[in-house]
Amino acid sequence: MVKTYFIGGEVQADYEFFQGVQLVGGICYEYKNVFDIKSLANHNATGSPLEVGGITYPGLPFQYFHTGWTDISENGNWQDESDRSIFALYAQGVFDLKKLFSLTWGVENLSFTAGMRYDDYDDIGSSVNPRFGIVYAPTEKLRFKTLYGTAFRAPSSDELYIKNNPAWTGNRDLKPEELETLECFVGYDFTENIRSSLTYYKIKTENLIILSGREQKNAGQAESSGLEAEMRMGSGKYKYAYLNFTWQDVKNTTRTTVASEGGESRTQEDYCPGGIPEFYGNIGINYDFFDEHVIANLSLNYVGEGERSEEKKMGRRKLGTR
Predict the structure, then answer these.
(1) C-alpha triplet 250, 209, 164: angle, nearest 5°
(2) What tens digit of pLDDT does each residue of 86-141 get?
(3) Cis omega before residue 176 (within 30°)?
(4) What average pLDDT does the segment 185-198 reach?
(5) pLDDT score, position 130
(6) What is residue 320's predicted lDDT score, i.e. its pLDDT?
């Protein structure tokens, strides 16, 4: 059992300096507190000796407590209490190049966006991440968009503070995962009611949080890329049919070097970590009745097979190609 308290606020402002240039900026603050964590159990699942009611129970073999369901929070709790404060500043500029340069021929829309965000976490440090984008539409029906940026993922309270778990434990020294993203989009409207899009994306991740032994560590790297396609046909806000699918390729690129007991050293090649479907898609229809008071949706979802991990082994150790 756990209780969570969350509070936050944000102030945002935008200003158009002159026709074609608009700036947006903001400041936000969040506070999260995880407290009053309790652990109730009728046996020792911590993996280590645990004293309950004057009797020490081993991690193994499995034994029930003579006291039945017992509060073991004092010396066998599953997570430490924690809190986190987040302060962020961000700014973004949108430049309408069509208006700025009075473009008329072959340009329905042409704009450039540049932004920056600063985040400061009191428990894991700070990060600065830029983002850029350009949108070009030669006609009302055809449009292109390219986005590039960096981001990060802060470790969760579980990844930081889990304890007394025989399978894995948290690590208070974890740093955020760092991501670099690229996205290319093309959209085309066949008619006013039939729209389509195709998106290519590529993501590189550094400081990937993975399980190393029994402890979470920043010890991995990964790359993923894919295609997303969508077609939507509709005549209203709630009357439409849709079809979309995603193909993706995910690789662990950590390239760990492992030495065998005989002294032979090999480096793990890039591999699929397993459990990730290469293809998935959706098809469905949405419709409203009685002037939008009743909305119905029927959909079919397909998720392809998730292959087993391609990670190679050398005895009990990871191995790859020379």
Answers:
(1) 130
(2) 999 999 999 999 999 998 888 999 999 999 999 999 999 999 999 999 999 999 99
(3) no
(4) 97
(5) 98
(6) 45
d(CA 133, CA 113): 5
DSSP for 27-71?
EEEEEEEEE----EESB--SSS-EEETTEEEPSSS--B-TTSSEE
The C-alpha atoms of residue 64 and residue 123 are separated, in whole angstroms, by: 38
Yes or no: say if 107 and 143 are a contact pair by the CB < 8 Å rule. no
pLDDT at 236: 82
Nearest to 39 by CA among 164, 187, 176: 164
Q: What is the pLDDT of residue 251?
A: 93
What is residue 75's three-state secondary structure? helix
Looking at the chain, list the stretches that DSSP marks H as alpha helix, in order from N- to C-terminal side: 73-76, 97-100, 157-161
Query: Which one, of 12, 4, 79, lies nearest residue 39 by Cα?
Result: 79
Alpha helices in 153-238 (DSSP H): 157-161
Reply yes or no on whether the pLDDT at 266 is more than 90. Answer: no
Centre a 10 Å sphere on the Cβ of residue 125 and count the other Cβ atoms it contains. 12
The pairing of beta strand 194-212 with beta strand 177-189 = antiparallel
> Would you say 261 and 316 are in contact if contact means Cβ atoms under 8 Å apart?
no
pTM of the model: 0.84
Nearest of 148, 257, 169, 183 to residue 217 by alpha carbon: 169
